[in-house]
Write a structure and sequence with these properties.
The chain is α+β, with helices and mostly antiparallel strands and about 500 residues long. The protein has a nine-stranded mixed β-sheet with strand order 1-4-5-13-12-9-6-8-7. The relative contact order is 0.10.
Length: about 500
């Protein structure tokens, strides 16, 4: 009853009381006239209640669960991050595409393993059963198959949707951006795969997030481990999904899930543990190559040789020190077929959010891998287009950078205005507008007050609040001499500049 307003509550009480009174009259065998009169009152109260129901109710203003708004400071941080990421993608020769925010449900079904339950289904709108995209990879594969594209290096930055349990502090949402880079086409092994690791390295270094590790593994090696340990083939993907939880859960918990929930023999689970808890570099590859059980499995041997070549290319590209060959890395999505990777920040396993004592982990901040069979699922003839790619966990990066901005108490500039046109006296609106037009024509970023006669102090305070570096001040004396006063807002230094030289002086000052 807490959400019912007082008027409606009073009306409900009156209806209840009047109803009891009518029943008493009926039990007391009152006259028909008396009962009808009281029934009329009850009908009147009921009508009044219905009119209360149709009145506009107070709107509860809140974001849907797992979503958020972004203020200008947060958006300024996001735009700068996006700019650095896009610059990196373009350095590596990528071009961009876009795909619809929703897809036919059948396009998405069966591509995400156990995570398929997180797909948002849309209501039937008359013939097409649709779902919101879960990631950008499956729509990209559909795009390649539908348009018969066999070679492309593409990036895409767009929102995706997952019906997950959100954690705003950890940067985990139901609506969020993904930043994807993919190389599609038949090329010599492992070089495109290693370039993806190089791209992740460049981005994380450009964003100055601290030390990080890029965990790598290979699906053929992982499947080889399962086969060597005696896992039934039909349980490979299910057990792979359990192993994928080792970055968040202890081995004992993962083993319990394998044995109790998925029916795996405990002896086999223990044997899996002797492999998947190992990590290292080239020396671990050599150890696996010498393993008697793994040697018997052809696909596992191929995976290990591929991993040797991959680590060699990583060394040549200068990223080997950031790479860890980690056998616990599984990446639960069904479509991966070769190398898989995941980047984790070492310095931000915990951080403070919004200046509070809420200490949380951010998890992985990038991931991806090779998916050679996905495009073939959409092609009528099953024609495959080999693909490899990475996705930057941009929301988690934003969570870290926003927390750092709050902790540093440094104001983030939210506009790019280069100069503010101010007037020192009244009745100079026309002159301010002429000057703004002149500067806008020169492609400078300019603002002025929307008031006809603004106060000088208010104009300068606005410059300080918005971190606008320069102010042009005009008055009657400046107009007569054909000059303006150019003021540096930070240093408070000012000088006269001829109108004919103003554009050049502003450009030169902003470039310093």
């Amino acid at each position: 009853m807490a959400n019912i307003d007082s008027g409606k509550l009073k009306c409900l009480e009156e209806i209840k009381s009047q109803g009891e009174f009518v029943r008493k009259l009926q039990l007391a065998s009152a006259t028909k006239e008396e009962i009808d009169a009281e029934l009329a009152k009850l009908v009147e109260l009921t009508t009044k209640l219905k009119s209360e129901d149709v009145r506009p109710q107070k709107l509860s203003l809140k974001n849907p669960k797992g979503t958020r708004d972004f203020d200008p400071q947060q958006m300024a941080i996001r735009e700068r991050v996006f700019a650095k990421i896009i610059a990196c993608f373009k350095r590596h020769g990528a071009e961009t595409i876009d795909t619809p925010v929703f897809e036919l449900k059948e396009v998405l079904t069966g591509k995400y393993g156990e995570d398929s339950k997180l797909i948002y289904d849309l209501a039937d709108q008359g013939g097409e059963i649709l779902s919101l995209r879960y990631d950008l990879t499956v729509p990209f594969a559909r795009y390649l198959a539908m348009n018969k594209v066999v070679n492309i290096k593409r990036f895409q930055i767009a929102k995706v949707y997952r019906r997950d349990n959100p954690s705003i502090a950890r940067g985990r949402y139901r609506e969020f951006y993904q930043c994807d880079f993919d190389i599609a086409g038949l090329y010599d092994p492992m070089f495109p795969d290693a370039e993806c690791v190089r791209i992740v390295t460049e981005i994380l270094q450009d964003l100055d997030l601290g030390a990080f590790t890029i965990k790598v593994n290979h699906r053929q090696i992982l499947d080889g481990i399962f086969e060597a340990c005696g896992v039934p083939k039909e349980k490979f993907r299910s057990i792979c999904s359990s192993v994928d939880k080792l970055d968040k859960s202890a081995w004992d918990e993962v083993k319990l899930e394998m044995t109790r929930e998925k029916g795996l023999d405990p002896t086999i689970a223990d044997l899996i543990g002797t492999y998947v808890l190992q990590s290292g570099g080239l020396e671990l590859v050599e150890t696996l190559l010498a393993d008697a059980k793994m040697q018997k499995i052809k696909s596992a041997r191929e995976g290990m040789e591929a991993m040797k070549l991959f680590l060699h290319y990583c060394d040549l590209l200068g990223v080997k020190d950031h790479v860890s060959f980690d056998l616990s890395l599984a990446r639960g999505l069904d479509y991966y077929t070769g190398v898989i990777y995941e980047a984790v920040l070492e310095g931000y396993s915990e951080f403070e959010v919004d200046g509070s004592s809420d200490i949380t982990g951010v998890g992985s901040i990038a991931g991806g891998g090779r998916y050679d069979n996905l495009v073939g699922m959409f092609d009528a003839k099953g024609k495959k287009v080999p693909c490899v790619g990475i996705s930057i966990g941009i929301e988690r990066i934003f969570a870290i950078l926003e927390a750092k901005a709050v902790a540093s108490q440094i104001k983030v500039r939210t506009t790019e205005t280069q100069v503010y046109v101010a007037s020192a006296q009244k009745n100079l609106l026309d002159e301010r507008l002429k000057l703004c037009r002149e500067l806008w024509d020169a492609k400078l970023k300019v603002e002025t007050s929307y008031k006809k006669n603004p106060k000088m102090l208010d104009q300068l305070q606005y410059c300080e609040e918005k971190a606008i570096p320069l102010a042009i001040i005009i008055g009657e004396s400046e107009l007569q001499k054909g000059v303006v006063t150019l003021k540096n807002i930070v240093t408070r230094e000012q000088r006269e500049v001829p109108r004919s030289q103003l554009v050049d002086v502003i450009q030169l000052t902003n470039s310093q």
